[in-house]
Amino acid sequence: VGQWFEYGVRVQPHHTDYAGIVWHGTYIQWMEAARVECLREVGVAFDDLVRLGYDLPVVDLAVRYHQPLRLGATAVVKTRMLAMQGVRLNWDYEIVALAPDSHLCLTGTVTLVTIDRAKHKIVRRIPPDLQDVFDKIGVYFQASI
Amino acid sequence: VGQWFEYGVRVQPHHTDYAGIVWHGTYIQWMEAARVECLREVGVAFDDLVRLGYDLPVVDLAVRYHQPLRLGATAVVKTRMLAMQGVRLNWDYEIVALAPDSHLCLTGTVTLVTIDRAKHKIVRRIPPDLQDVFDKIGVYFQASI
Amino acid sequence: VGQWFEYGVRVQPHHTDYAGIVWHGTYIQWMEAARVECLREVGVAFDDLVRLGYDLPVVDLAVRYHQPLRLGATAVVKTRMLAMQGVRLNWDYEIVALAPDSHLCLTGTVTLVTIDRAKHKIVRRIPPDLQDVFDKIGVYFQASI
Amino acid sequence: VGQWFEYGVRVQPHHTDYAGIVWHGTYIQWMEAARVECLREVGVAFDDLVRLGYDLPVVDLAVRYHQPLRLGATAVVKTRMLAMQGVRLNWDYEIVALAPDSHLCLTGTVTLVTIDRAKHKIVRRIPPDLQDVFDKIGVYFQASI
Predict the structure, then answer these.
(1) Which residues of chain A have pLDDT under 70?
(2) How many angstroms separate the CA atoms of D102 and C29, rounded?
(3) pLDDT score of C138
(4) D10 chain-A contacts, CB cut-off 8 A
(5) B96 strand-pairing partners
(6) CA dihedral defined by B95, B97, B102, B107, rounded to 10 degrees?
(7) pLDDT for position C143
(8) A–C CB contacts, 8 A cutoff, strictly below
(9) R_g over Cα of chain D
(10) Chain D partners of C13 at a C-beta cutoff of 8 Å?
């Protein structure tokens, strides 16, 4: 299994709820941002992909919440893409608190599929422009497999 | 000044922050929903307007926060459209807590302009389909002016 | 398996993303609201539970996205609580589009545990005030089991 | 008038709406994060302030939206605190797009007051621990006045 891409976050007031901790849905935003920034690191600007006529909607999401994060805490969202399964792109996640203490906050997985925005359909035959995107992702993650 | 359109809300966990009250940005969501539902009451489905090629972005927003709302509280978002000023559609707001106690939460104003989505420009000459929309709004709010 | 509790929603602009559909994290808000309103129907005000010193954090969340929902669409969030597994309260979900067309949007499950807010610990021995809450939930859902 | 504190942001999918641009309420989150990070730069950790028993709720918010921001764009949130007016802390804002093009997105102001969390009251007589906080802010912003 490949290396993790790491994306740092800080808990701001709007991330929290009445319990003084990060609201459980907030993590979904961070997981998305980490994934988009990982793609950028790989050389794929997500907005370019959208402009090319594709999208990568989430079709499956599973999250386990381990320990909470409090206002002002910092954490790192770790993500990596696993080998593709047919049309499914599977991403692994760990969110780990960094300060004021270090602990595991969340583990999860997200599955994306590539769709053609005009046809509203899953892309099963990969056209060259999209193959180029997948190649870039593959090179990045295989480097450490 | 015309009658208020009223839109009821309940404070859910995701609306709150670490202070146990509604996070100040949450009200912007409720103000939007109240405005869209007011338009629907008037006979204008906002998604139809978007499909016709128009949009009504917010260009000015001013909010005064009076007293907070806690988890589980209910409130009513009151809104009304004032007379148009050139291309500007001005909306008035009051949010009033209903239970467990009644108090004024927020007063505010929102200004919209109509834009042509394809041209990315403000619509200054109102075409017939849009005039129909404005007429419906006018009839509704003038009824009580 | 018991009856569904149903909670209606309408897609507002702030629920959507650049793709013109509901952003995948928005559903988590609706699932929470449906759960809280289901508890209220059962006779349990969630804010009372919090005031008693308990909380019901989400410890597991799994969602499958079937078909998207567009701006202005209406849907129903269907939820029901399954039999408790030790300290775990398991909730089942379906979100079904109602208009402009009817289709399955999402299926999912959410697991809660009861914690003591002061001790930051899972409640394993149920005190009488909390047993009363669980009894109310049980009566409601067993009615149709 | 003092120097600006600058906080960088990137438009992620969850920040956008059906129009493909940043939803107007999203900016409120960024304005809060910039303010909290500015306080940290000054030497004031907002979560410490909360732990000391204080809070800084927003009592007034005014925003003018100039030009939109699209998916993938980067921007800088510029903020500075003006001289206090009695109990009111006034913050100035500008949000400026950096890439793919540079333009003014938003100008705004936010007013905070300091409250005592236990008493739910505005702090009118500044105790020494809080005076220390205000002194730090003053030193930072006066440096360039």
Answers:
(1) 1, 143-145
(2) 34
(3) 86
(4) 33, 37
(5) B76, B104
(6) -20
(7) 57
(8) 53
(9) 16
(10) 17-18, 23
Closest CA to B13 of C74, A20, A29, C61: A20
Length of chain C: 145
Q: Residue B125: how many CB atoms within 10 A of its CB?
A: 5
**Do D47 and D101 form a contact (C-beta atoms < 8 A)?**
no
D29 touches chain C (CB under 8 A): no
pLDDT in tens, C54-63: 999 999 999 9
Whole-number Å distance between alpha carbons of A83 and D99: 33
Residue B49: in which H helix or E strand, if any? helix B46-51
Residue type, A143: A
Q: Count CB neighbours of B117 within 10 A.
A: 15
**Whole-number Å distance between alpha carbons of C101 and C74:** 9
- How many other CB atoms are there within 10 angstroms of residue C67's CB atom? 12
Low-confidence ranges of chain C (pLDDT < 50): 144-145
Phi-psi region of A135 (alpha: psi -120 to 50; beta: other; left: phi over 0): alpha
Give the pLDDT confidence of B36-80 residue by residue, as tens digits.
999 999 999 999 999 999 999 999 999 999 999 999 999 999 999
Whether residue C95 contacts residue C11, with contact meaning beta carbons closer than 8 Å, is answered with: no
**DSSP class of residue B20?**
S
What's the predicted TM-score (pTM) here? 0.97
Distance between CA A135 and CA A125 in Å, rounded?
15
C17 is catalytic: yes
Cα(B95)–Cα(D85) distance, rounded to whole angstroms?
27
C17 has a chain A CB within 8 A of its CB: no
Question: CB neighbours (10 Å) of residue B66?
Answer: 14
* Dist. CA C71–CA C14, nearest whole Å: 9
